[in-house]
Amino acid sequence: MKMKQYEQRIQTLLSNMTLEEKIGQIQQCGPSLVGAFDVSFDELLNMMFDGRISKEEFDRLMGTAEQDFHEEDLRAGKIGSYNGIGDSAIANRLQKIAVEETRLGIPLLFGYDVIHGFRTVTPIPLAESCACEPALWEKTGRVAAEEATAAGVHLTFAPMVDVARDARWGRISEGAGEDVLLNSAYGAAKVKGFQGDDLSKPDAMAACVKHFAAYGAGEAGRDYNRVDMSMQRLWEEYMPPYKACIDSGARAVMPAFNDINGVPCTANPWLLRDILREKWGFDGLVISDSNAIAECVDHGLAEDKRDAAKQAILAGMEMDMSSNSYAEYLKNLVESGEVPECVVDEAAADVLRIKFELGLFDNPYQTSEERERGAMLTEGSRAVAREAAVKSMVLLKNENHILPLKADARIGIFGALAADQGQMTGAWAIGARPEDCVSIVEACGARGISYQYSEDGKDLLKIAASSDVLVAAIGERKEESGEAASRADITLRKEDLALVRDLLATGKPVAVVLFNGRPLAIPELAEHVPAILEAWHPGVEAGPAILDVLFGDVNPSGKLTTTFPASSGQCPMYYAHINTGRPGGKSKFTSKYLDAPVEPVYPFGYGLSYTTFAYDNLAAEQTGEAVHVSVSVTNTGSRDGDEIVQCYVQDVAAKRVRPVRQLKGFEKVSLRAGETKTVDFVIPFAELSYYDWNMEEVPCEGILKVYVGGDSRAELSREIRI
Length: 722
Ligand code: BGC
What we know:
Elements: H1 3-16, H2 19-25, E1 27-29, E2 32-34, H3 41-49, H4 55-63, E3 66-68, H5 71-75, E4 81-83, H6 88-101, E5 109-112, H7 125-129, H8 134-150, E6 155-156, H9 180-195, E7 206-212, H10 231-238, H11 240-247, E8 252-255, E9 259-260, E10 263-264, H12 269-279, E11 285-286, H13 296-299, H14 305-315, E12 320-321, H15 325-335, H16 341-357, H17 369-375, H18 379-392, E13 394-398, E14 411-414, H19 440-447, E15 451-454, H20 460-465, E16 469-475, H21 494-505, E17 510-515, H22 523-528, E18 531-534, H23 542-550, E19 613-623, E20 626-635, E21 641-651, E22 662-671, E23 676-684, E24 690-691, E25 697-698, E26 703-709, E27 717-721
Parallel strand pairs: 1-4, 1-12, 4-5, 5-6, 6-7, 7-8, 8-11, 14-15, 14-16, 16-17, 17-18
Antiparallel strand pairs: 2-3, 9-10, 13-18, 19-20, 20-23, 21-22, 21-26, 24-25, 26-27
Helix pairs in contact: 1-16, 2-15, 2-16, 8-9, 8-17, 8-18, 9-11, 14-15, 18-23, 19-23
Bound molecules: beta-D-glucopyranose.
Residues 83, 113, 157, 210, 289-290, 483 line the site of beta-D-glucopyranose (BGC).
């Protein structure tokens, strides 16, 4: 359908809608659970999390629960959208009610958190970002969309592109790490993958970029915490990824839970109107975070829920996810003249528009149970998940070439995570099923490897005696990262460290496979364990992918997209810091700690390979309105391998202090053993500018130092004057 045509139909529909029906369109309903418990579902969840009931008791009660879709409200035109339904039969049943039984027959929009895969769970976003491969990010986004849309989903609450520099924040797992450029490239690729080339196709899923803005900068890494920062920093370090997603075509935006400089994003007219609409020209849909409108009362911005509804809608918040604030108060607010009806019209129009764009008016039933059955966990999607997992892993250490293991090596495997399928998905994988995941132990069996397994270290000495190498699978459980999972202490569990010490004491070669949703402080491992593979939470193909790397079928190439601090107290820690007037050093009065190093354990951009790479012939020159950089990279080892070549710049002296380094380009190159390739980067001047004290954008001038290499500590550099 041509754009003009549906703009007209939107206006016609609006003119036929009652105020209640318009408010219905901007109401997103999360089905509630009713069951054999006397408390609300939220309270039941809390009871489990604070230990009043066990996980088993919770599961038992949930087994008796039924979903309530509020169908009477739906029939009355009071619901325009649902969140959290990933089941084609349910979606089509509700859609039929909307289309056939409501007065105007407007189809429903189904939203869902498809964060890193639907059934075919791919690595957590933080992991996948380490692959530094936009084509891969797009491909896994496509697989996610094909599956989720088959299950009835129209819109995903992803990508999350919150720059995250504090390893204590649990949601660092959900984005592309600490860098501005990487988050921008990652988000733009995901949007393309989710949405495909035509949003009206049945396998296209609208992207909702989140959490706008700066949700990753919460104080002390505590989830939902305040964000207070200079405008210069906000614009230079946090805003670009959201903009990149919008430029890539994202049709929805979710404002963040946090406040920025005192005003919650949910009801922030500067953010939602001045920036998003006026400055960036966004013409899609704005959807609140869950219950966020009502939470403006807790923030202390609104006196009560009615006031919250008023401030939010006036600020430009369109769809209310789950708080019922609009459903309860908007009609009265319009009737009292406090909210002009045209504001509600605008919001409803944006909901109708996305429904037209998705083709829902032409074909409200874009899937069927049959399509859903055939779409899940295909051979092809599993292959993509395995490829993504392999490319996401980062080899942190490999002393004495312990890895790759010989094909006939006898391995002793230790740690519960080696056999726990359910843990492989990591946080935010709500469509995942534990039984879909392949563990390390299972994969060893399938591959015919000679192995012995001990979950808790029992028989450790016996197993060690008859093994050539010992592998410890340790780290975080999936509940230890993600939303509401901040940690003040990002070290390993005591029992994990004890296990590793016992393994090292046997004198056998030890390799650690780390599972985690955030950077961990692992100085002891880094010092004493000869081989460490960062596997993150790899998804359904965890086991086979880990063995691909351990046995060298694939040469690892992932690079860290977040700094690994030496201790929790160093957080937030990130490579693109400023120098201060007294950079950390040996002498007393410098910027450092008495009891921790100033350096991380592993820097941003770091990751080893089974081969080695050398950089040479770095050249940098100004060509027109850009800096042109070229470098030659040689595979100096005896195996073929991929290297992620990174280009950093430093604006040596400027009107404001600038980061010591900023990533301005990255490229993955495949090099056969002994091969050399030239890699070029073109950095437009526009990408070097910054904001001065008065928030005027100023060009980078004077000396620019360019560094190229395999991580953020790259030493090869050139200076040019621009
Ligand atoms: C999260 C969002 C998510 C939403 C819907 C919220 O708690 O912050 O990222 O999309 O729930 O499930």
